[in-house]
Amino acid sequence: MFVLRGTQKLRKRLKMPVSPSQAGDTVLGDWYADLRPVRPKHLVLLVNDRTRFPVLVHASPLTSLQPRFCIALSKQLCAIGAADDAIDAEMARMDTMRVDKTASRSVLATMMDYRFMLEAYMDGGPPHDLHAVSMKMALGPCGPLDMESPIDVTRSALNGA
After folding, report:
1. Do residues 48 and 133 touch, judged by C-beta distance below 8 A?
2. In 3D, which of 51, 57, 146 has the Cα closest to residue 104?
3. pLDDT, tens digit, for every residue of 66-106?
4. Contact 87, 74 (CB under 8 A)
5. How far apart are CA 20 and CA 103, in angstroms?
6. Strand locations in 62-114, DSSP E?
7. Cis peptide bond upstream of 127, omega within 30
């Protein structure tokens, strides 16, 4: 089970109860999520609490956000060179999603940086390859990670380094 810490705007749209009593059991930890209005389709920006690794998925339909997020995350973890068995184990732990409120201003600030990057990468139109845009956002150095890239920190966390 993993914890999705959604912004108030996203939690209202998800219509899922907030249940703050349990912690997730994934290696990467909690994921923060926000709804991004990008025409013609809205996007959900998800950012990992521990590694600041970003994932973009289409918002619609929100009822299937969890499985679509897991598919996108699995694809990205494979692309950064995480071990197959580590990816499989993480995906098995992410079979259930629990929704909670945001709890870290630092992660929300990182999400704001990613929002600006997303706008810059759109080049006047919506991104067509969300995987490529997510990976491009994850390449840059990140202050809360001592200027390491989210890709390197995520790969190390999953591969046990």
Report:
1. no
2. 51
3. 999 999 999 999 999 999 999 999 999 999 999 999 999 99
4. yes
5. 11
6. 97-101
7. no
